[in-house]
Amino acid sequence: MTFTNTIIQFENVTKQYDNDSVVLDHVSFEIEKGKFYTLLGPSGCGKTTILRLIAGFTEASSGTIYFNGKRINDVPANKRQVNTVFQDYALFPHLNVFENVAFGLRIKKMKNADITIKVKEALRFVNLEGYENREIKEMSGGQRQRVAIARAIVNQPEVILLDEPLSALDLKLRTEMQYELRELQRRLGITFIFVTHDQEEALAMSDEIFVLNKGRIQQSGEPTDIYDEPINRFVADFIGESNIVPGKMIADFLVEFGGQQFECVDQGLNQNEQVEIVIRPEDLAITSSDQGKLQVRVDSQLFRGVHYEILGYDHAGNEWLVHSTKKATVGEEIGLYFEPEAIHVMRFNETEEEFDKRLEGYEEDYDAN
Ligand SMILES: Nc1ncnc2c1ncn2[C@@H]1O[C@H](COP(=O)(O)OP(=O)(O)O)[C@@H](O)[C@H]1O
Ligand SMILES: [Mg+2]
After folding, report:
1. How far is the CA of 43 from the centre of ligand 2 (A)?
2. Most buried in the list 48, 149, 158, 286, measured by CB within 10 Å?
3. Which residue numbers delimit the ABC transporter domain (predicted)?
4. Which residue puts its alpha carbon closest to atom 6 of ligand 1?
5. What structural domains and CATH numbers belong to the chain?
6. What is the pLDDT of residues 147-170, one digit of tens each?
7. Which residues contact 308 (CB under 8 A, 6 or more apart)?
8. Integer angstrom CA distances of residue 110 from 1, 58, 105, 114, 155
9. Looking at the whole model, is its pTM more than 0.85?
């Protein structure tokens, strides 16, 4: 028997509600024990559907779902080792804090004395000791959020599913709860699967992110990998701000865009292959026009507190967004400087497997060259 850390696995899972269009299209992924995962994607891409399939609230149309190595497609929701924190928290307004958290344990017919111990422990975990007798309506948004989390952890599930739990909170509370949730996951050591449409939230909180669009996983990986090496236009655009311009691969380590050729770290593509180029705004530095690698005429400029956001156009008509601590002058021509590593070359219709394979040898080969 081989040792595995995998707790949940989706194998070619497709979901179609009635005769409607396909909501999840051959989705495959693995979730490991004890990590913080995020499903990230725009509204309607299938995030909640994935959570519902894991929780057993809906059935897969085809494909297999495994939990701890066993097929669970036909296991009812109440027999699964998962608990869900819903978007609206779904607390019972007529029950106090204690009874909301105790609810699942009472259904399981646990002894009163044991229930008290478990509920108190769960409330301590979310910093709500002493709130046992409060009514739900007396609790703030952030406190309700914590009650919902206490209710999810009190059963000691192996996995907690969180469906956009922070989206109803204001920005400041939201940031606080991001820290709290991340910290709670570390202390509990159980698997969290968190859903959000907010890319900054996903980057800040996750060990692993699955980026979804239209019922398909576009890319999965650690936040820095996805940010630094987006697989396609959708991911580059959805995660952070990007400059995406058309380009052409001239040879290994040489790419053309904006009417010029540049040294890059990419290799193994076809000669003259049409590609898309991504450069992050913070990877562009401003120079005088003659010292830059690319010349851009400044169209507009905004001061953002930490940096200036400068927008300009190169001679080929491509738009360039630059984040710089230096100020530019609207109407003037400036130079842009960037390292070869800042250029990311994206192929059209590349699968995640092909993409990962292509990137594997890049750094060593480029350094050796
Ligand atoms: N019960 C349902 N019946 C029919 N279509 C549904 C149902 N639930 C969700 N959908 C559709 O499935 C798609 C994905 O929904 P959902 O998983 O809720 O997306 P997300 O959580 O990413 O916003 C949407 O187009 C939605 O309209
Ligand atoms: Mg949803």
Report:
1. 7
2. 149
3. 8-239
4. 17
5. 6-228 (3.40.50.300), 242-368 (2.40.50.140)
6. 999 999 998 899 999 999 888 888
7. 301, 302, 322, 323, 324, 325, 326, 327, 328
8. 36, 28, 6, 7, 11
9. yes
46 Cβ inside 6 Å of ligand 1: yes
pLDDT in tens, 28-83: 999 999 999 999 999 999 999 999 999 999 999 999 999 999 999 999 998 998 99
Q: Which two tokens stand for residue 231?
A: 């697989």
DSSP helix/strand/coil, 140: coil
- Reference 283, options 362, 328, 228; nearest CA is 228
Other Cβ atoms within 10 Å of 230 Cβ, number: 25
- Whether 45 lines ligand 1, by a CB cut-off of 6 Å, is yes
Residue indicated by tokens 């996750």? 206
Identify the residue whose tokens are 């601590």. Answer: 325
- Cα separation of 60 and 26, whole Å? 10
Strand pairing class (333-337; 319-324): unpaired
